[in-house]
Amino acid sequence: MRKEANTYFYACKNRKTPDLDKQLDDFRKYGAEECNIFTDSAGKREIYRFLINNMLKSGDTLVIGSLFCLGEKSTEIIRNMEFFMYSDVRLDIFDLPVTFSKNYGDNMFLVCTVMIQMLSLFDKKEPKPQKKREYPENWVDVYTRYYIKHEITARQARELTGLSQYLLTKYIREYTEEYTDCNVTDADQPEQN
Measured in whole angstroms, how far is the alpha carbon of residue 130 from the centre of its chain? Predict the structure, then answer.
C-alpha cells in the first residue's frame, strides 16, 4: 500500500464540455501540477479509462473539470459514479464544489448516491405536449349522429368526413377520451357497415 495519496486532475472535451482550456486554467488556479493533469478530447475518454484502470489507487482523489467528463448521457455518468461509490477513490467535480471531499469528508458513498438519484430524476423525459387533433369541420355532427344517436352507418360517417375506417375509429376513440370521462373500447363502437 502506498504511503501518500495522490490527486489527479482530468479534463475532457466533448459536446457537453467544449471548453478544455477553461478546465485546465481552473485546475492550474487550484494548484494542480502539470504532471498530474490528464486530458481527453473528442469524447473518447481513453485517458479517463487509463486513470480508472491503472493509476487511481485507494485513497487517491480524482478532480474532474465537469460532471460531463464522466459521460454525455446520464446513464454513462451514473455508471461511472458507481465506481467511486464502491471504491476508496474520491471524486471532486470542479464545477460542483459541493462534491469536493473537503466538504463531505469520507462520505463519498452518500454524495454519489445523492448525485445518482438526482441524475435519475433529470433523466426522466418530460412528456411533450401533444398537438390538439384537428377534426373534420363536420366532426361533431357526424360523431353525434354515428356514435351517440346511431342514425348513420360507419360507411356514411366515412363518406361525410372523408376518413378511412382506421382514422374514423381512431378519431372516435380520441374524441371520446378527450371530451368525456369514459374510455372507449372496441365493444363500444357501433357496428361497422
Answer: 20
147 closest CA partner among 130, 163, 132, 131: 163
Contact between 58 and 84 (Cβ < 8 Å): no
The pLDDT of residue 68 is 84
How far is CA 33 from its chain centroid?
35
Report domain extents, the chain: 7-123, 139-188
Tell me the pLDDT band of 85, cut-offs 50, 70 and 90: confident
What homologous superfamily is domain 7-123 in, according to CATH?
Resolvase, N-terminal catalytic domain (3.40.50.1390)
Check: pTM over 0.70? Answer yes or no: no
Distances (CA, A) of 48 to 52, 168, 187: 6, 56, 59
What are the CA-CA distances from residue 186 to residues 17, 105, 172, 189 (Å)? 52, 61, 11, 5
DSSP letter for 38, please: E
DSSP per-residue letters across 84-129: HHHSS-EEEETTBGGGSHHHHTT-HHHHHHHHHHHHHHHHSPPPPP
